[in-house]
Amino acid sequence: MSPMHPIREGDFIVSNDGTFKPGFFSLPNNANHYVVIWYANISVPTYIWIANGDDPIKDSSRFLKIGNSGNLTLFDGDGKIVWSVGRSKLLSRSFGVSDPTSKMKRRV
């Protein structure tokens, strides 16, 4: 996956070891969308982290990008930044991963 390539609804990325899968989640019959990370290798979605639990996204044209420095950034449909987290925080706290080789790769 090239840096800053957009990740949209239906796309997802997984960690190199296949453990984690970030993407979008929404409840049925609900306009709220969330950026979540769940275990990729479990058939029943098990969410381990929600980025915007207090501030759901209503814009279905939003997208994620991973920057050159590893930041994960959420944009609205107009390309404005809604939310962003740095690589070090993402790896150390959110994923519970301390190994910097656990880079993300895109699967569509």
UniProtKB/TrEMBL annotation:
Matching Gene3D superfamilies: Bulb-type lectin domain
Example GO BP: response to other organism
Residues in Bulb-type lectin domain copies: 1-108
Gene responsible for this protein: SD11
Record keywords: Kinase, Transferase
InterPro entries xref list: Bulb-type_lectin_dom (IPR001480), Bulb-type_lectin_dom_sf (IPR036426)
Gene Ontology molecular function terms on file: kinase activity
Species assigned in the record: Acorus calamus (Sweet flag)
Protein name stated in the entry: G-type lectin S-receptor-like serine/threonine-protein kinase SD1-1
Signal sequence bounds: none
